[in-house]
Write the structure tokens for this entry.
Amino acid sequence: MENTFNFCPLCGKKHIVCDNNRKWFCSDCGFLLYCNVAAACGLVLYDDFDNVLFEVRAKEPRKGYLAIPGGFIDADERAEEGIIRECKEELGFEPENISFICTYPNTYLYKNIEYKTCDMFFSSKLPSSYKDLYALLKTLHPQESEVSDLKVVKVSSLEDIEKIPFAFESSKKTLIDFIKNKKGV
């Protein structure tokens, strides 16, 4: 999908052109808009029993599909701060001892606009004050506008990952990396 403008957002004329979906230029007024990659973050929250916490998305894109907690990083915010803030907002839970896993590019289609993102993923083991993720579920307060439900899914093999209806391919690739790293592959 190509992001297009029919009119220049600055002068309103029709002479705005897109260069490889990367930047837009208006020959009438000189307006130049770069389509830079947006930064996003996600968290693999797991327990000792190979369970991972997923959100069921409450809105588009990919409403009803599973996603790991996360979202866009705010301006002037470190990725680590972003994932903690997103977990507080979406779950009412502050993860501890987060560790970096990997990054993956992603395409986020929202209201017919294609956003390219660089998704940064972290992991956090469930605090010892909880027996497992099922115990944690009882204490969470999902943000209704973002999360329609929470699911705990056993993720101990590549076969387990293939069965998950992921909202985003970058999360799937991250869980593959996560499993491989846990198993020392």
Remarks:
- The chain has four helices and ten strands.
- Residues 44 and 107 are 20 Å apart (CA to CA).
